[in-house]
Amino acid sequence: MSGERFRPARDRRRRVGAIFRMVCLVSIGFSMLVLAILLVDVARDGLHWLSWDFLARYPSRIPERAGIKSAILGSLWMMGLTAAISFPLGVGAAIYLEEYAPRNWLTRLLQTNIGNLAGVPSIVYGILGLAIFVRFFGFGRSLLAGAATLALLVLPVVIVASQEALKAVPSSLREASYGLGATKWQTIRHHVLPMALPGILTGMILSLSRAIGETAPLIMIGALTFIAFSPTSPMDPFTVLPIQIFNWTSKPQAEFHDLAAGAIIVLLVVLLVMNTGAILLRNKFQKRF
Amino acid sequence: MATKDLRDRSGDAPDIALETRALSVYYGESAAVNDISLTIPRNRVVAFIGPSGCGKSTFLRCFNRMNDLIPAARVEGEVLFRGTNLYAHDVDAVEVRRRIGMVFQKPNPFPKTIYENIAFGLRINGFQGKLDEQVEHSLRSAALWDEVKDRLQESALELSGGQQQRLCIARALAIEPEILLMDEPASALDPIATGKIEDLIRDLREDYTIVIVTHNMQQAARVSDYTAFLYLGELIEYGDTDRLFTNPREERTEQYITGRFG
Ligand SMILES: Nc1ncnc2c1ncn2[C@@H]1O[C@H](COP(=O)(O)OP(=O)(O)O)[C@@H](O)[C@H]1O
Ligand SMILES: [Mg+2]
Asked: B73 alpha carbon to ligand 2 midpoint, in Å?
């Protein structure tokens, strides 16, 4: 009987599967639990500060009158500018590396270093931004200097994510295009980029989500903590939500700590709205066919 | 860039569509196509047969310079089209591919509408006529018009595999090539869809020169006028299809067509 030469041990295999499932469940449960505790804590401290006035007022020495209008506007400006700088640069670099660069040691060196750049501490980018954008280019302590710095910071992630998206475009699609007499540019423009766009946008979302929480490099380039007016141009001085939060948590009075919690809730909501918007945008591109 | 215009220089050999002279293709060090010289007559169907991995696709891709896209591939020798060597350095591969169209093994329509699949090639090649008319004309040529005329704005990916492949043929025909290269165009299709493609090839023979790669010997026998048998990158035998299948001259050809190897 051939059956005797097999020991199926189905029970044991199923048990291993069940254990593995439990391990996965515990890891997700643990992460969610920590996150939930954090959120509950923040909500308990900050929720009762939330009001339209809180959003519409400028910061103040008196907790009851303090708001985060300038920080929200600063963060929105910052995200817009950072995206506007890092998207074309990052996608352009990725297209060059994937589609045009010769496959030689120089390209490999470049590739390795882009990977390494993603691991550089953000404060280092702050020092760089201070030297280059604030001083050398003379942008001053402006939104533009901050956005350029954050754009540099997220650029490696944007590039690598875009490269992965471009790599995932099947070669049969390129062949179809070239086979009809399309040039390289026409092939990239009409087929490769549209197909890679959802993946590229995912990378962009992740990058901006990181950028919106960055504090250290912006403090380094000299973001102000007290801004009692709304920025109206990229050359204006600025503050952003995480800096406002940092500022309030470092004050001795407990009321300010609660204000910080309120600002954290707003930051989370802004992040949520931003990601939802980007996901909708991505789905729109994805579902076109 | 001054590139050759692929004007007709064939002179005293007007019946020849394509000719290879001592053509070899290397992937790195190893030769996938080894020193093949043959001529492909105009308005005929020529089939390349041979076991998997013998270099049929690689050989076929020389005719429209698709091998340019594979960095490791190196081509030696000449491919003459209308008297011009397609591998001369002043020949533009983009122009070659408009004149010599290709259909691939797996149907690869663009993830766009049926209409756009065909309009793309027309637009990028600066087509001057009426787009709608040319789209209809090419869909009719590929025997697909009746099946899709009411759904031109739907995604091409919703078509069946056989319809997708005929769309790819229509797309290639739209830009009015002289030669159509087909790399196992029916190998991913069911028998009925395969039959339709074969019927289509017989119809297209009137207006085009067709080079078809197939590992299916019955298919080669059904659709082609001439057959080339390739083995391990070498051209073993080339001749009239009926003669090659009934009375092969080479022992290896006979072994292959009688199913004793490959
Ligand atoms: N891109 C490639 N890189 C390296 N070797 C390849 C590549 N494509 C094909 N080959 C090799 O070249 C030989 C011929 O392949 P191919 O032309 O695809 O054969 P066929 O179409 O007859 O099956 C095979 O040995 C294959 O492994
Ligand atoms: Mg093949």
From this structure: 15
pLDDT, tens digit, for every residue of A212-259?
988 889 988 888 777 878 888 888 888 899 999 998 898 888 888 888
Please give the pLDDT value at position B61: 96
pLDDT for res A136: 95
Alpha-carbon distance of B95 to B203, in angstroms, equals 26
Report the C-alpha gap between B87 and B65 in whole angstroms. Answer: 8
B10 touches chain A (CB under 8 A): no
Q: Give the bridge partners for A132, in sequence order.
A: none
- B73's CB contacts (< 8 A; 6+ apart) are B25, B26, B27, B58, B67
> Is B185 within 8 Å of chain A by CB?
no
Quote the pLDDT of residue B240.
95
The rounded distance, in Å, linking the Cα atoms of A230 and A240 is 11
The pLDDT tens digits of the residues spanning A72-104 come to 999 999 999 999 999 999 999 999 999 999 888
Burial B226-238 (b: 16+ CB within 10 A, else e): bbbbbbebbbbbb
For residue B122, the CA-to-ligand 2 centroid distance in Å is 28
- Whose CA is closest to atom 3 on ligand 1? B27
Counting ligands in written order, the one closest to the CA of B28 is: 1
Asked if the Cβ–Cβ distance from A181 to B111 is below 8 Å, we say: no
Are A180 and B125 inside 8 Å of each other by CB? yes
For residue B60, the Cα-to-chain-centroid distance in whole angstroms is 7
Size of interface A-B (CB pairs under 8 A): 65
CB B174 within 8 A of CB B138: yes
Residue A287 has what pLDDT? 60
Write the DSSP symbol of residue A64.
G
Q: Say what the ipTM of the complex is.
A: 0.92
Each residue's pLDDT tens digit, B181-202: 999 999 988 999 999 999 999 9
A-chain residue closest to B72, CA distance: A103
Q: Using an 8 Å CB-CB cutoff, list chain B residues near A174.
A: 69
Ligand positioned closest to the Cα atom of B69: 1
Residues of chain B with pLDDT under 50: 1-2
Query: Which residue's CA lies nearest to atom 1 of ligand 1?
Result: B70
CA of B29 to the centre of ligand 1 (A): 13
Closest CA to A194 of A218, A166, A233, A217: A166
SS3 B102: strand
Question: In the structure, what pLDDT confidence band is assigned to residue A288 with cuts at 50, 70 and 90?
Answer: low
Q: What residue spans of B91-210 are helical by DSSP H?
A: 93-99, 114-124, 131-141, 145-148, 161-174, 191-204
Kindly state the tokens that stand for B175: 């830009």
